[in-house]
Write a structure and sequence with these properties.
Layout lengths: L5 H10 L3 E4 L8 H11 L4 E4 L12 E4 L5 H7 L8 H12 L6 E2 L8 E3 L22 E3 L3 E5 L6 E4 L3 E5 L2 E4 L6 H12 L3 E7 L4 H6 L9 H9 L4 E4 L6 E3 L4 E7 L7 E3 L2 E2 L5 E2 L2 E3 L1 E9 L4 E3 L12 H20 L5 E5 L4 E5 L6 H10 L10 E5 L8 H10 L8 E9 L13 H4 L2 E10 L25 H10 L7
Parallel strand pairs: 1-2, 3-20, 4-12, 22-23, 23-25
Antiparallel strand pairs: 2-3, 5-19, 6-9, 7-8, 7-11, 9-10, 10-19, 11-14, 12-13, 14-19, 15-18, 16-17, 21-22, 24-25
């Protein structure tokens, strides 16, 4: 079922015992971030904070986090049974990413219940946490849809981009020129115009599930959101621009971004998806000129940053939508034989290999896509006899099916990539100098090489037979006599 708003989504999570309401007073400065981190680590429920320090009498008093922190919750979003397997969730996501359901435009909606201008604008009225100890400030844009429009094609983009409160009416943002809204920004800069922007916070969970995904740049995310939720999005025009936002959203922040570098201000650091802090630099600023919100709005945010012991919403969502997107990219490029994909942090792909250059075809297809900006840095391709979800099997493939001198390791130098990767030289992480970051990508071909077929001592087999396989007669005999051996 599609959710009319975040309130229906919260109620659905509660009915399925996937929500915890926290009524004890908590501090926005560090405490909420620590609670969220520990709950994410335990793969716990979504959290609704209802008693936040300094926010008992503000416009917004509640904070919701963790609604998509587990695959079971993503299944609920897709209207699937809560125990649906990850593989089936990926399959459904793949199918819905291929379709479009265009939005409707309506004349009114709950998001217009309150309209604030001028001195009434105060971003500190919202219970925005300081998520990580070393963050440069309170990050209001963490789990949101940032809406912009191409000034030439008029195609809307909805993306998720970080933003830090600078003052009550200004938000410093990380704007990568390579990203979709970055391309819009460059066009406005060429025209000498400020770029209109709208930040949507709190709506159907499909909003950020799609906004955070690397959707192709010629597709409007609202069309894909409609497909994910299997119902068109009802949109309403902003007060200060012709941008369109969900009519039942909780909060919409309207503003403009100056394209003059003289108007940039320091933004960062921020605890990023890599598990490390992103750097502080002079960056563009959203000047807020209007806020619309529902009565008693619910603010939606999330905690970024992962490592193997500290999962979060981004890792749960990324594991699903990046698998679906990678699979669809390979399918669209005519790549055959793909059987399974783990997309992050290292991309591992299981194939039925039919020709020698197949792994390079796979890497080339992924690396040539716009989805590769923050993804697919390291690609490992394995054969169909390897369970990629068992790292012991993966290690054996790396140990005995990779020969570096035979071309099984391939490096692509100075590819476009993430500006947030701390393994990249600092000068190569300057997003405005390079348009993004610079990456050296690597393919590890851990499949059986067809080069050895003619020289094999085992006939037409590429590799010798496995020495761990038992003779069927011996196996049957041992099973029959097992108790006789006195073994447990």
């Amino acid at each position: 079922m599609p959710y009319n708003d975040i309130r229906e989504w919260i109620e659905h999570l509660e009915r399925n015992k996937r929500l915890k309401k926290i009524t004890a007073e908590v501090n926005w400065d560090g405490e909420i971030g620590a609670i969220t981190r520990l709950v994410f680590a335990k793969k716990g429920p979504a959290l609704l904070f209802e008693n936040i320090k300094d926010h008992r009498k503000t416009i917004c008093k509640k904070l919701f986090v963790g609604g998509l922190g587990r695959v079971s919750q993503i299944a609920l979003m897709l209207d699937l049974p809560i125990d649906t397997s990850p593989q089936h969730v990926i399959k459904v996501t793949r199918e819905r990413f291929k379709r479009k359901v265009p939005p409707n435009v309506v004349n009114n909606g709950p998001v217009k219940e309150n309209i604030l201008y001028g001195d009434k604008i105060n971003l500190f009225e919202f219970p925005v946490p300081k998520w990580h100890p070393l963050d440069g400030g309170r990050y209001i844009n963490t789990f949101c849809g940032v809406v912009t429009k191409d000034p030439e094609t008029e195609i809307l983009n909805v993306g998720t981009y970080r933003g830090m409160i600078l003052e009550k009416n200004r938000i410093g943002v990380l704007l990568i020129p390579f990203q979709h809204w970055g391309l819009h920004y460059q066009k406005y800069r060429e025209k000498g115009l400020d770029m209109p922007v709208a930040v949507v916070t709190g709506w159907d969970p499909a909003l950020v599930f799609v906004a955070a995904a690397p959707i192709p740049k010629d597709i409007c995310e609202y069309d894909v959101i409609g497909s994910i939720r299997e119902r068109a999005v009802d949109l309403i025009k902003c007060e200060t621009s012709d941008l369109l936002v969900p009519a039942t959203a909780e909060i919409v922040i309207e503003g403009t971004i100056s394209t003059d570098p003289k108007d940039y201000e320091p933004e960062g650091p921020f605890g990023e998806f890599t598990g490390y802090y992103g750097e502080r630099r002079e960056r563009p600023v959203i000047k807020v000129n209007c806020i619309t919100h529902r009565n008693d709005p619910i603010y939606r945010g999330t905690l970024e940053g992962i490592n193997p012991s500290w999962p979060n919403e981004s890792s749960a969502m990324g594991g699903i939508f990046l698998s679906a997107i990678a699979w669809n990219i390979l399918e669209s490029q005519g790549v055959s034989g793909v059987l399974d994909i783990i997309p992050v942090p290292i991309t591992i792909i299981k194939i039925h290999k039919t020709f020698q250059g197949q792994p390079r075809q796979i890497a080339s297809a992924l690396w040539g896509s716009s989805a590769a900006l923050d993804n697919f840095k390291i690609v490992i391709v394995v054969d169909d006899d390897v369970n990629i979800r068992d790292y012991r099997e993966l290690y054996v493939s790396l140990a005995y099916r990779v020969n570096a001198s035979e071309g099984d390791i391939f490096i692509m130098k100075e590819s476009f990539g993430s500006a947030l990767d701390p393994s990249t030289r600092p000068e190569f992480r300057d997003e405005f100098n390079y348009g993004c970051g610079l990456w050296d990508r690597i393919l590890i071909d851990a499949t059986k090489s067809f080069k050895y077929t003619r020289h094999s001592l085992w006939g037409k087999n590429v590799y010798p037979p496995s020495s761990t396989e038992l003779d069927s007669k011996d196996l049957e005999l041992v099973k029959r006599r097992w108790e006789e051996y006195g073994l447990e």
